[in-house]
Amino acid sequence: MVSQSRVRSVRRAAQSKPGLLARPRAWAQQSFGRGGWKSELVGLAFVAGVVAITLTETDRVPYLLEQRVDRPILARVAFSRINQAETDLQRQKARLTTPNYYRFNDTLSKWVQAELRNILTTVRAAETYEKFAAAGPNRWNIDEAVFAALGEFRDTEAADRFDALLAAVEEGLRHAALVRRPTESERGTSGDSAEYAVLIDGDHEQQAPKSRLWYVSNAQHVELVTDQVVAGADVAAPLRPLFRRVLIDAIDGDEATNRPPQGPYVFDRDRTQAELARADHLPPVEIRYEPGDVLISRGKIDAERLALLTAEHEQYLKVRATDPTLRGPWLRERTGRVSLAVLICAGLMVYAGLFQPRIIQIYTRGLALAMLFCGVLAVNRLGYAFASVSLSPLWSVTSVTAAAAILALAYNQRFALGAAGLLTLLSTIVMRESMELLMVQLSAAAAVVAQMSEVRTRLRLVQIGLFTGVVSATVAVAVGLMQLESTELVMRQAAVAGLAAVMGVLFVLVVLPLIERAFGIATALTLLEWADTSKPLLRQLIQKAPATWHHSHLLATMGEAAANEIGANGLLVRVGAMYHDIGKLNKPEYFVENQQARVNAHSKLSPTMSMLVILGHVKDGLALAREYGLPTILHRFIAEHHGTTVVRYFHHMAAQRHAARGGDPDDREVDETEFRYPGPKPLSRETAILMLCDGVEGAVRSLQDPTPGRIESVVHEMTMDRLMDGQFDDCDITLAELQRVEQSLVKSLCAIYHGRIAYPKVAAEPAKGAVAQPA
Question: What pLDDT was estimated at residue 752?
């Protein structure tokens, strides 16, 4: 009698699944129905996130430094722009034409007057020239004539005349444009092209042409000025040499007394610096542009042109916020972008439902994929929008390459290539970029996915990154040449694209443990680490249950070959097989392969109790896996390698005992549903392969004479039994793949249980010299 569960399984197997194009509603119910409302919520949140990223207001100038344009760029709005180059030129010209300011040197005038008065006082004190000469050194070389001329100013009336004479000398100094040329550090500029200087005397200022200036560094100028001052003061002829010597001494200075050279006018640094600062703050030069004015006709965009385009773009953003004539087209453009983004999101969900249905059925997987896509789009859109205008959009290749590598690690190359292609489309749309960026991103994603078939060492990831960088740089060069860009820009873009691709793969290398945890996967690096027989769990299995280890090792070899045959993950099957029976460590003697001397530990247990012991090794295995930190993906091999199959041996024993008591072995008392493993059924091709390996290896081992024909028959029967029992309903393995797996298993089992030649026994010959015994 066939059980009701088997009838339902056969009925499901006989029905064909509805195609997407033929029955979209049935497909949607089949995909989203299993995931429930949580999967639907994740899908809606994903679309909402992509739309929100696409609608971000921040926008940047769509041009790059050194980019070549082959058509005129017109102003979209009226705006004024400060011509910084012209402003700097005008300010520099103003600085150069700012004159030097000189202030009257009261110190010099007072020193000259004081020195002349001292001379007069000395002359007055000496009644005769002989006493004057004997009084001390004659610093000013005063002879008898000069002494006599000074003696005329002895009385009070003459003293007033001497004061008037000194005042006349001071007045002559005020009109003498004798100055000391300032140094560059004093002036603050490296040049002076002013045509005049400004002389300040108290509140009075006058402009003195440079042609009328005299300089203290020129001895002839000093002599000429002193002659003019003395002559202008109407100094008596005998006194003129004395006055000239005093003036020259005052102007030349004296290092011994720390008197620097100085003229009647000294450089006014504070006033000059103030005038130079005023020149630096001249109003900027503004240029007015009207809508339709040509900003750039054609050619390469240099720094000045880029600044002009930036100013126009900033004004456009301000005007667009209030001007309906500009806002209308902008809204239509945004609507188009959002519509395309939503369609691509829908395409991604359809693609995932067709080729990775577990993303739809298990909401956590869908959430991980949605977060990956939204994260990449947010980084590309917001990072590019808020970055400097000189930042190349090709830096987005970093996030796209990293996402493509993650997709290839988490799923398979076919799905990763399609999903990465859709991601590059979304990235180009949300970044508001052109097809050139799409080509570079797509080539980088394709290059990294094509090499991610199996990554068993970290060095391999580095090699993948370098190769992807070369591919990205090459495509960037090709795109730049196609756009007739300058050689400098092409090389810079190629360097950015190559470096970005390398950084993306290296980023995956750094965050690999986080990726495995987020997507519930184990990379080849992790699997190879857990395949090491020095791991504590495997060492215990080898020591406590060597037969179980031998069985697991056989399944690992068989399963890896079968998985590779259909393009599944052979390494994952191998490592999963090594750990699938670790639950037998708790009670190894209750499993037939570990029983010594054919002692059956179940002989004293009822079939039901024996069944509980057998079923318990799955639960115990999961507990050990969690205790020793086994990767989550390997837990599935422990839980799913029996699926919901029936423990046939104990079900048969229970039926016999029930029949011995006069009951019907097929009634509800011995219903096979009570002797089934708790499951779940295999959810992947890899766990389905292990289920078949586990079943056929035990069945073939029980054969008395495992000939190739018998092995093939047993494998086929076991495969059909699992298929008709519905054990493969929840995984994506196809009938064609099952046939190839069956052939691979037959080949492996025939190699393991191959026949041997029975060598004839040779009768022992009597030793030489032995005496024959009588019959």
Answer: 86
Residue 342 lies in a domain: yes
Domain tally for the chain?
3
Q: At residue 233, what is the residue type?
A: A
Count of Cβ atoms closer than 10 Å to residue 460 Cβ: 16
Position 339 confidence tier, pLDDT thresholds 50, 70, 90: very high
Does one domain contain both 552 and 685? yes
Alpha helices in 606-765 (DSSP H): 607-627, 632-640, 648-660, 685-701, 708-724, 735-752
Whole-angstrom Cα distance, residue 365 to residue 31? 13
Distance CA 237, CA 249 (A): 19
**Is position 37 within any domain?**
no
pLDDT tens, residue by residue, 220-236: 998 998 889 888 888 88
Closest by CA position to 586, among listed 612, 564, 606:
612
Q: Are residues 548 and 443 in the same domain?
A: no
- Cα–Cα distance, 654 to 674 (Å, whole number): 11
3-state DSSP assignment of residue 646: strand
Query: Backbone phi, then psi, for 64, in 5-degree steps?
Result: -125, 155
CA distance linking residue 572 with residue 456, whole number of Å: 12
Selection from 400, 417, 405 nearest residue 500 by Cα: 400
Cβ within 8 Å of residue 565, ≥6 positions away: 740, 741, 743, 744
Check residue 58 and give its pLDDT.
66
CA–CA separation, 125 and 127 (whole Å): 6
Check whether residue 503 and residue 600 sit in a common domain.
no
The reported pLDDT for the residue numbered 73 is 85
Confidence band, pLDDT 50/70/90 cuts, at residue 2: very low
Comparing 246-260, 347-361, 747-761, the range with the smallest average pLDDT is: 747-761
What is the C-alpha separation between 545 and 75, in angstroms, rounded?
A: 82
Q: Which two tokens stand for residue 53?
A: 């990223």
Q: How many residues does the chain have?
A: 775
Longest dimension (CA), the chain: 185
- Is residue 562 in a domain? yes
Q: Give the list of residues 6+ apart from residue 60 with CB closer than 8 angstroms, or none.
A: 313, 384, 385, 387, 389
Q: Which two structure tokens, joined as six digits, stand for 171?
A: 């007045």
**108 and 173 in contact (C-beta within 8 Å)?**
yes
Q: Is the dihedral of CA 663, 664, 665, 669 positive or negative?
A: negative
Do 624 and 715 share a domain, yes or no?
Answer: yes
What distance lies between CA 372 and its chain's CA centroid? 14
Residue 76 has pLDDT above 70, yes or no: yes
% pLDDT > 70, the chain:
84
Do 508 and 556 share a structural domain? no
**What are the strands, taking DSSP E only, across 153-289?**
178-179, 196-201, 204-209, 214-215, 265-267, 286-289
Which pLDDT belongs to residue 650?
61
Residues 406 and 441 in one domain: yes
CA atoms within 13 A on the CB side of 392: 23
Residue 225: domain span: 92-280
| Residue 362 included in any domain | yes
Examine the domain organization and report whether 337 and 250 are in the same domain: no
